[in-house]
Amino acid sequence: MVKLIATLGTSPGGIFESYTNLINGTYQAEVVEKVPINEVYIIRTSDKAVEFAWKLVKAIFVCCGGKNVTIADIPLSITDITSKDDYLVFKKAVEARINEGDYVDITGGRKAMSVAAAVSAMRRKAKILTTIIPPSEYNRIQKLIEELKSKEEEIERAGKGECNFDFCQLVSKSATTVMLT
What we know:
By secondary structure, the protein is an alpha/beta fold. It is 41% helix and 18% strand. The protein has helices at 13-24, 48-63, 84-95, 111-123, 135-148, 152-158; strands spanning 2-7, 37-44, 70-75, 103-105, 127-132, 176-179. Strands 3-2-1-4-5-6 form a six-stranded mixed β-sheet, sandwiched between helices. Helix 2 packs across helix 6 (152-158) and helix 3 crosses helix 4.
């Protein structure tokens, strides 16, 4: 069973972009093949904006074609990485979920989260990837996210299968996923 372990910041689409690029074999690497991802583990802080992004991630997966994968939310008690202790809490949570051969997406969250995930992936012999979203697309998506903040109930219903909004607009069609290891 191959997992995608991803860090989440405030931009929800990156995880879905990484997932779809892996399963479709549309990423950049020395050798490209379709990756059968069975589970996606999302490691995140308990910051309010990140919790909102998590609700959007669920809606995106349910409404945009990620129904055949199990998504696990791994919220941590910290709201941000502001100390070495916070870093170690985050690193321990990430490393505990990684097995050899898994894929670790370091796109989302603060730099310290990406470093923790990358260091853990290297220790566990997992593959490291990131997805790059063009700035114009990122800005467009951020405006949509801002508009959706007043529709939290609708977003929660979408995460359960009631897709009354085109959440796929939160996914960049111009994103590029790059395998780093």
